[in-house]
Amino acid sequence: MKEYDIVKLKVNLNKNILKGMEGTILISYGNNEFEVEFLDNDKFNIEYEESSTFTISGDQLEVIWEAPS
To answer: What Pfam families does the database record attribute to this sequence (predicted)?
Structure first.
Protein backbone atom coordinates (compact mmCIF):
# COMPACT_ATOMS: atom_id res chain seq x y z
CA MET A 1 0.00 0.00 0.00
CA LYS A 2 1.18 3.48 -0.79
CA GLU A 3 0.06 7.09 -0.93
CA TYR A 4 -2.94 7.76 -3.19
CA ASP A 5 -4.03 4.12 -3.38
CA ILE A 6 -7.79 3.71 -3.06
CA VAL A 7 -8.71 1.35 -0.24
CA LYS A 8 -11.79 -0.33 1.18
CA LEU A 9 -12.23 -0.55 4.93
CA LYS A 10 -12.53 -4.13 6.29
CA VAL A 11 -13.98 -3.11 9.69
CA ASN A 12 -16.15 -0.42 11.24
CA LEU A 13 -13.79 2.32 12.38
CA ASN A 14 -16.39 4.44 14.21
CA LYS A 15 -20.07 5.35 13.82
CA ASN A 16 -19.39 7.41 10.65
CA ILE A 17 -16.62 5.39 8.97
CA LEU A 18 -18.01 1.93 8.31
CA LYS A 19 -16.87 -1.38 6.84
CA GLY A 20 -16.94 -1.30 3.05
CA MET A 21 -16.38 2.45 2.71
CA GLU A 22 -13.71 3.55 0.26
CA GLY A 23 -10.97 6.03 1.04
CA THR A 24 -7.66 7.40 -0.20
CA ILE A 25 -4.32 6.88 1.51
CA LEU A 26 -2.83 10.33 2.07
CA ILE A 27 0.25 9.36 4.10
CA SER A 28 2.13 6.09 4.52
CA TYR A 29 3.90 6.08 7.89
CA GLY A 30 6.05 3.09 6.94
CA ASN A 31 5.03 0.88 9.86
CA ASN A 32 1.88 -0.55 8.24
CA GLU A 33 -0.01 2.56 9.41
CA PHE A 34 -1.72 4.88 6.96
CA GLU A 35 -3.52 8.21 7.13
CA VAL A 36 -6.75 7.76 5.16
CA GLU A 37 -9.41 10.22 4.01
CA PHE A 38 -13.01 9.17 3.33
CA LEU A 39 -15.49 11.19 1.26
CA ASP A 40 -19.28 11.16 1.20
CA ASN A 41 -21.37 10.96 -1.99
CA ASP A 42 -21.07 14.74 -2.42
CA LYS A 43 -17.25 14.47 -2.22
CA PHE A 44 -17.01 16.15 1.20
CA ASN A 45 -14.75 14.74 3.93
CA ILE A 46 -16.51 12.50 6.41
CA GLU A 47 -15.65 13.71 9.90
CA TYR A 48 -15.71 12.06 13.30
CA GLU A 49 -14.85 13.87 16.53
CA GLU A 50 -13.52 16.85 14.54
CA SER A 51 -11.10 14.70 12.48
CA SER A 52 -11.36 14.27 8.74
CA THR A 53 -8.44 11.85 8.31
CA PHE A 54 -7.78 8.69 10.25
CA THR A 55 -4.70 6.61 11.10
CA ILE A 56 -5.52 3.02 10.18
CA SER A 57 -3.56 -0.23 10.24
CA GLY A 58 -2.95 -1.80 6.85
CA ASP A 59 -4.55 -4.99 8.21
CA GLN A 60 -7.88 -3.13 8.23
CA LEU A 61 -7.60 -2.01 4.59
CA GLU A 62 -7.92 -3.66 1.19
CA VAL A 63 -6.43 -1.97 -1.88
CA ILE A 64 -9.03 -1.66 -4.64
CA TRP A 65 -7.03 0.65 -6.94
CA GLU A 66 -3.28 1.20 -7.02
CA ALA A 67 -1.91 4.65 -7.75
CA PRO A 68 0.80 4.76 -10.43
CA SER A 69 4.33 4.64 -9.07
So the answer is: DUF4926
Alpha carbon distances (Å) from 15 to 3, 12, 31, 32, 47: 25, 7, 26, 23, 10
CA nearest 3: which of 28, 29, 22, 23? 28
pLDDT at 69 over 90: no
Which amino acid, residue 52?
Answer: S
pLDDT above 90 as % of the chain: 97
CB contact at 8 A, 36 and 22:
no
Whether domain 6-65 has CATH 3.40.50: the reply is no
Which residues sit opposite 48 in a β-bridge? 51
Q: Write down the domain spans for the chain.
A: 6-65
